[in-house]
Amino acid sequence: MKSRFLIPLLSLCLFSGPSLAENRHHDAHTHGAAELNIVIENDTVLIEFESPAVNLIGFEHKPRTDAQQLELQKALALLNDVEIIVSFEKGECRVTETHIRGPFDNADQEEPEHGKREEHSEFHATYSLSCQDASVIGSVSTRLFDHFPGFEAIRVRWVGSKGQGSALLNNQSTIFSIE
Amino acid sequence: MILKLAIASLWNRKLTVTLTVLSIAVGVFLLLGVEHIRSEAKSSFSKTVSGVDLIVGARTGPLNLLLYSVFHIGNASNNISWQSYREFSQKPEVAWSIPISLGDSHKGYRVVGTSRDFFEHFHYGQKQNLVFRSGRAFDGVYEAVVGAQVAKTLDYQPGQSITLAHGIAKVGFSKHDDKPFIVTGILAPTGTPVDQAVYVSLAGIEAIHIDWQGGVRILGRSIGAEDALKHDLTPKSITAFMVGLNSKISLFSLQREINNYRDEALVGIMPGITLMELWQMVGALENILQLISILVLFATLMGLSTMLLASMKEREREMAVLRAIGAHAGSLFFLIEIEALVITITGILVGSTALCIALLTTRAELSEQYGLFIGINPFTPLTFQYLLGILAVSFSLALLPSISAYRNSLGSGLVVRT
């Protein structure tokens, strides 16, 4: 009896199981997909956004042409506006801190060894917001799909005072609610 | 008057009517049952863990970790080292942590090795604390706390001596009978898997396995209960641990740190998000189940309409006589509609009674086997909407035989056939 219930559940787990690889650790990197994390505590909201570079600029190597350089600058400029990433239905918030790391601008990244190529590059953005009353934030929408056609799906995970939740956004559904 | 006539007329055709009532009852049972179990399972799962920010275990699927660490469903693929636990539990952003060590059982109930922090920091439902119904938390190595259901089923009181079994088989052959535990406390019922477990200290788990190797007791090297206390009872590994943070702001960064930890393959999951992802995954399945039960119910209501329509032929004379003694054609229309509604309502009553009985008899099994706590009252505002919908569908499907009664009663029934 028990297995009837377990087998469908456990087979679901198979889809989500990362493999064991210490010291040869590789982060997942799926083109078209991106992650958006939101933490709300008291009146502080923290937003983290992480995406493969290809979703925003269409390539993952260092820009080789002026057109590519322009794409990169455009993407970085858009990311600077938190309203592109998320906008809240209610609640007055202002950005207190923005930190954006483009795919090619960390100087401390070690040069790839000879013969090895760095195959993937990503955008990371974090925003801290200070809100009048963060508890009124009801639904949240994103405009990422409008500005960057490279996105297929964005996985949102949020943590608030009442609990945790997640939503999967695509270009048809760009709104989710935080209860 | 028409109602009386309708009931008498149905009574006259007991057998077909009973079968129709039963088929509607099955449809109602299925629809309400699926709806009830689906919503109850969700709320039962969601209220099991509250206020835990992260659950950390050996790297595996998030769902798998959640199921074995909180719901005691399935088993861990790997343990994690005590050292890693210490390292993460002492981080400044961590407010509290609860270690969990699984793998032993007591008469079919899971034994959970943990620390006293469990009783203090573990919450369920709407951030409710665990409460002792009697006794106190374990203190010594050979002390145990039992869940409400365990105490009730096995009739335990504080002071009871119990023996833990190695592994989780209901009939365990390898018993830790040389090191009995004393029940020191009984938890109040929570309606969560906590009720179904026995809690001991991590040192207790370590002590009973001190003279074991490779899953069996080492012959000729048995260490008595008293002697075991002289050994170092710090565990080498645990199954998982739960974490509460000082500030949720650090949640995602701590999770990333755990997931990218290079010394050991760990995974940290956020229980609320994992549950929500589970619902998203099983959502399609739920919809299919619901669709099937709606279709089954629709088919039974079609059967009702068919049954009434078929009976029109044999009741031609009855209808004609009713008209002849002065009944209006409209009355015959209502007679058939009322018959249909009486059958449907009886079907609904039988179906929901059967559902209540079924829930009542299986709920113990459900909570023991699956950690699912299902209430026995299947009625919610939503189910009443469903029931009204059923009545409306049955009314409209019964229009066909009713209109036929309205139209044909006089003409065809009184014609003398040769």
Automatic annotation (TrEMBL), chain A:
Which stretch is the leader sequence?
1-21
The record, for Pfam families, names:
ZrgA
Q: Which UniProt keywords apply?
A: Signal
Record-linked InterPro entries: ZrgA-like
The protein's name in its UniProt record: DUF2796 domain-containing protein
What organism does the UniProt record list as the source? Methylotuvimicrobium buryatense
Cite the source lineage: Bacteria, Pseudomonadati, Pseudomonadota, Gammaproteobacteria, Methylococcales
Automatic annotation (TrEMBL), chain B:
A Pfam family cross-referenced in the UniProt record is MacB_PCD
Its membrane topology: Multi-pass membrane protein
Where in or outside the cell it occurs: the entry states:
Cell membrane
Q: Superkingdom, according to UniProt?
A: Bacteria
Q: Which residues cross the membrane?
A: 15-34, 265-282, 288-311, 332-362, 382-400
Choose one Gene Ontology CC annotation of this protein and give it: plasma membrane
Which residues are in the MacB-like periplasmic core domain?
19-258
Q: Report domain ABC3 transporter permease C-terminal positions.
A: 292-407
Keywords (alphabetical) are:
Cell membrane, Membrane, Transmembrane, Transmembrane helix
Name under which the protein is recorded: ABC transporter permease
Highest lineage ranks of the organism? Bacteria, Pseudomonadati, Pseudomonadota, Gammaproteobacteria, Methylococcales
